[in-house]
Amino acid sequence: MGFLSEIKHYLRVYRRYLSTSASQAMSFRTSFVLLIIMDLLFTGSSYFKISFIYDHIEVIDHWVRHQLMFFVTFMLALNALNTTLLSTNFWMFSDDLKTGNLDYILLKPVSSIYIVFFRYIKPSGIPNIILTHSLLIYFGMQNNLGFIEWLMLPFLIVLSFTLYALIQFVISCSMFWLIEGLGINFLRLQMQELARWPDFIFSKYLRTVFMSAIPILLVGSGPVHFIFDRSYWYLIPLMLLLCFILYYLLHFIWNRGLTHYDSASS
Amino acid sequence: MIKADKLTKKFTTYKKEPGLSGAIKSFYQRDAIHKYAVKDFDLDIKSGEIIGLLGPNGAGKTTLMKMFTGIIVPSSGEIVVAGHVPSKREKAFRKKIALVMGQKSQLWWDIPALDSFLLLQKYYEVPDSKFNKKINEMGEMLGVTELFDVHVRKLSLGERMKLELMASLLHEPEVLFLDEPTIGLDLIAQENIRNFIKEYHEENNLTVILTSHYMQDVQALCKDLVLIAGGEKAFDGPLKSFEKVLGHKKSVYFTFKDAISLDDQFFKEKDVQVLKGGREIELKIDESDLRDLSSHIIQNYPVIDFHTEKIPIEKVMKSIMKNPEILNQ
Amino acid sequence: MSHAKKWLQTMKISWVKNTAYRFNFFLQVIGPALIFFFVKYSLWKTIYKSSPEEMIQGYTFTAMITYHIWSFVVSMIGQGHSALDMAVDIRMGRISSYLIYPFNFWEFHTASFLSFQILQIIISIVTLGIFLATGILESLSFFHFFLGLSASIYVSLFWFVLQYLTGIIGFWLEETWIIRVSLQVITVFLSGAVFPLDLFPEVWRNILDYTPFPYLTYYPIKIFMGQEVPYLKFIYTLGAWLITVLTINTIVWRRGIRNYTAAGM
To answer: Which end of chain C is more exposed for a tag (fewer CB within 10 A), N or C?
Structure first.
């Protein structure tokens, strides 16, 4: 009972986040339009990049054009979710730490991790979510996905997004220890850059690191490998396991961070 | 309602030598510097009281407030606020308290205040009917109802502060912490805020802890006063007895039509100061002598105006800072 | 104080500012360029893996990697300066001090830019040294290096005035970073920073020839690689664009400042 009402409470808060964010976006209408254009430019250039390369070659490693296209779209869809639902929060977090506004967040009767990482939503990302997910269906059809794969796809997106989010949360926690948190956001962006490509383009050593210890490559390559080849099934429980580990790690680091924050403020 | 026992907060910083060699050196050998922001602080505040927390900059006021609200954890000692240990940051505790910081804003900058209120309503799970009643009441009291739909960034500092106060009271906290709520405001806005706090306190009987740079805030709102200096408590008691530290003195000012001479025997043994070239005087007298002295002066000198003042708290503070022993007398 | 001294002092200050948070500077400026190079290196290595001797549009694996190394250098020197957030200055009213100082707003930013460029050139040379030492870059001709460096610095001037333009749009727009990022996305893709423009379809290449994009990365890389490039065309096309944007900047600034002072911020 307590758990259910707790969930309801958090959902109600989230609905307010949606409306405050919408209200905020509407007060900057030019930015809103420009943001949509920026997303489209990014999505477009990502496709042309792959397409132009495949004009001259047949395969990259063992993937043909429509396979890599599916992978790229999967990552673009995740990124669209990420920019819409999360990314603003990472930038605001560094501000809140600097200005001490985190104090107010700590006072609220809601988990501070929740407020810090979910408070800001960017409605301008919604068109891009729709576009990339439609494209994902299109390239899914090009790859002749079976019934089971289609059924698994939404679940895989949620799983990947969860893993993706947790990795970014953990990285962002390091801002507690840095005076200028901006750099960490760039580190996060560089992680994203790595994740935009399938794991097999990287050397064996790096692949191992980025598929386990810092599982950023697993975010896209895990589910897509599994969709193309069922023998990669073990990547899915691995992702689940890592989600659990990262979840606990996040809480651990967060609490350490708060202790540090407390000693830094007087 | 609030009880602190030997409360201590120690900050540890490390000496750092400049440059690369310093950085490398500090890696394996660091010299710790301990600084007490608050030391052995006892406090006992009863439910429904308004307490003023005074002290110079860096005395530890904000550190105390942060420990009371659970933002930072004490190094040692104990605190209980509204039946909770703040540093545990229990949900029930967070619903009972509120903190307003004059220097920081909890309202969203780019949207109307009402949107922020609605979000806070959800945070604190305030039922709709109560929420509506609350914002209407407080909006009336503060005269800001028509500002609910204005973007916060377009408001003046005074208007924003009123809305900040409202935001922190929506969930009807039992304890309200006000950290410099009137800082940077003009005199009228300061008074508005003070009146609101006074009125709201009378109606809701909550416990309030107030820090301020403006003594008028404390004089207008608090019966009791805690003075903190260098992280330690210097005084704790009724505002009146604090003022009594310098005796039952009052300042009386007389303005005359023409400059008067103070050679009279009458002024000889009085504590008098000549202002405006003899056209005004300030007399420091015991409260009990007020009647006799005033009537004497009004009858014998060309008085055109006069008024009395309590000896301002600032002066009392300054004397205590300079000479802490007076408190022990 | 003589005017040159003001410039020198400004350059010093921004040098200190840039290097103060070394870790952040690394993550913000050098890191992205390195990761970008690393990802491209890995990608092309995978593509050429099956047949290292194969040519793709005239590029062997070694030529492709050399292209990307110079692409790294051009992006560092030519388009490295993107941290220009004048919009914040404008919105916070900080610009007002420059209306009073006997030192202009553009002078302040140009001096900062120059100081940043010196830092970028040093970093580029160090990185090149590492590429050379590890054998990723096979050889280096000093003549072409200096030619390429000059071309990159020329490009950086154009990039700077373009960035400046996006900055002073802040008189009208709250968040100019969106325009800057968009510009970056388009430029990286269309200038040949992702891969040589030779891999683009014929139609695209013909159209791009009428835009400034190929001059921003593709041609400077060719110059570094010692290939035949229409030098004169490079100089006057980019020059024409430089003057055009500079003119627009002057007009935009005049209008903006009128707006700004009229609003009495």
So the answer is: N
